[in-house]
Amino acid sequence: MIQHIVMWKFREGTQAQAEEFLTGLAALEGKIDCIRAMSVRRSAVEGSAYDAVLIAQFDSLADVERYKNDPRHLAVAAICKEIRTERCAIDVEK
Asked: Using N-to-C axis directions, what is the helix angle for 71-83 and 61-69, rounded to 10°?
């Protein structure tokens, strides 16, 4: 099992776009069959180093790549690319 963890910091004044991105990302669960589980959350602490996090589970690194290249994910990710100032990601075995 692979956990795919991604965190983002969004530009000031992009709250509406950030909400659209996070809602769209969460909606991918159940649509992209290689996603085993997914959690999309905002930081509970204002002023945190990152504004939001994705924790998703996949059977394999190949499934992570399938997810990342799925056109539905790419469409949602395009929103994020326009509003993020920072992004970090890691894939770990669970």
From this structure: 70
